[in-house]
Specification:
Blueprint: E1 3-7, E2 10-12, E3 18-25, E4 32-39, E5 46-51, E6 58-60, E7 68-73, E8 78-83, E9 92-100, H1 101-104, E10 115-116, E11 120-124
Parallel strand pairs: 2-11
Antiparallel strand pairs: 1-3, 3-8, 4-5, 4-9, 5-6, 7-8, 9-10, 9-11
Length: 126
């Protein structure tokens, strides 16, 4: 069973940076699309970014394009989300999720991902 664990969240000032990590166990990641999602209080979970199994294709929500960068190291079974120029509206619990690339493609729709981590809190505040 594929298990995902996020880390790297925390409190940062507006304009600051954080790097989130998503470490996988139980299965190699190379066949999986990995997505990052976030959920703020009172809001629906939304897709932030995703990356294909090989890392050759990425997709970003318009709200984070140019500020966030997704990458993966399949040898380390880990996916990263580098977040720069953070804004208060980026405050949320961030989740990584996995889906077989054959079925998930480069989707940013939460229901297309069957495997989820427990989440890590990101708070952007002065």
């Amino acid at each position: 069973q594929l298990q995902l664990v996020e880390s790297g969240g925390g409190l940062v000032q507006p304009g600051g940076s954080l790097r989130l990590s998503c470490a996988a166990s139980g299965h190699t990641l190379c066949a999986y699309t990995i997505g990052w999602f976030r959920q703020a209080p009172g809001k629906e979970r939304e897709g932030v970014s995703c990356i294909s199994g090989s890392g050759s294709t990425t997709n970003y929500a318009s709200s984070v394009k140019g500020r966030f960068t997704i990458s993966r190291d399949n040898a380390q079974n880990t996916v990263y989300l580098q977040m720069n120029n953070l804004k208060s509206e980026d405050t949320a619990v961030y989740y990584c999720a996995a889906g077989l690339q054959t079925f998930t493609g480069e989707s940013l729709t939460p229901s297309d991902y069957p495997y989820w981590g427990q989440g890590t809190q990101v708070t952007v505040s002065s």
